[in-house]
Structures are given as C-alpha cells and as structure tokens.
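FIELD: query
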Amino acid sequence: MPRVNLLPFWLKRQRVVDWRAVVAVVTLVAVAAFAAFNYYLMFQRVQLLRQELERVKHEQTLLGPLLNRLTQLEQEKQAILDKRQFLEGVRARRWAPVLSEIAGLTPVNVQLKLLELVDPRSILIVGHAGNLEAIAQLMSGIDRSSLLERAGVRYARDADGLYEFEVRCAIR
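FIELD: result
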C-alpha cells in the first residue's frame, strides 16, 4: 500500500540530533579559532620584531662612523700613552746619573729640599745646611764634578740655626 502523507508539507518529522557530530564540529571550530588567534598574536610579534630590527639597523648606520672614530681615537690615545711612557723612561735614565751625582756630592749635614730643572741645561738646588762650610763643600764638589759645573749660590741665610741656600749649577 502506498504511503500518503496527509499532513501539510511544512510540518516535517523531527529529526534526532547527533550530538557526537555537534561536539566534533564545535570542537573543530574552537580549535580553528584558537589557532587563528595564536597565528594573529605571532604575526603581531613578528611585526614588532621587524620594526625593532629596522630601528636598530638605522641606529647602527648612524652610530657606525662615530664608533669607528671612537676606535681610532682610542688607538691614537694608546699610541700617545706608549710614546709618553717611553719618553718618561728615557728622561728618567737621562737624569739618573745627574741625580746620583748630586746625591754623592751632598755632605752629611746638608738636607736637600728641592731639585728643580730651571731650563734643559740648568738645575736649582734648594736646601738647609748646618753651617756655611757644608754649602761650600757642596759647591766645590759640583765644580769638580764631571756632570755639573758653574755652581753659584743665590743666597744663604740663617734661619733658626740652619742656613737656607739656593745653588744653581749647569749640566755639562
């Protein structure tokens, strides 16, 4: 027998919902949304890193010449310091014999207060002596020296039982 539907066509039989399929679809949509959001966040982070990279490259191009100049100046400074150290060593070796000669010529009762290089060929010796004979001994020793000559006293005066003196001599 044929089946005839006497109900109007807009009424249909209710279908049974397959919840497993609904859960699968909702889960798939949720995973896709989460993945899309993560992709969006990663894309934003990559964009920020690219901008930072461009900024750093720009700063590097601006600072590159300055850093090169700084390196050159540091090298020049080191070269100057090396030359200065060398010259100080030469100067110390040059004056060592003169200073040891003055130390050897100084009598026991003479105290030297100052040795000053007046010009490249002249030294000023300032000190205290117990008596005038000690100053005379120092001057005669300078005149007999092979490194020093023309000792001349500028003044010798009595100050509290000691004689202050200034002797100027030439370096040979």
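FIELD: remark
Residues 130 and 160 are 10 Å apart (CA to CA).
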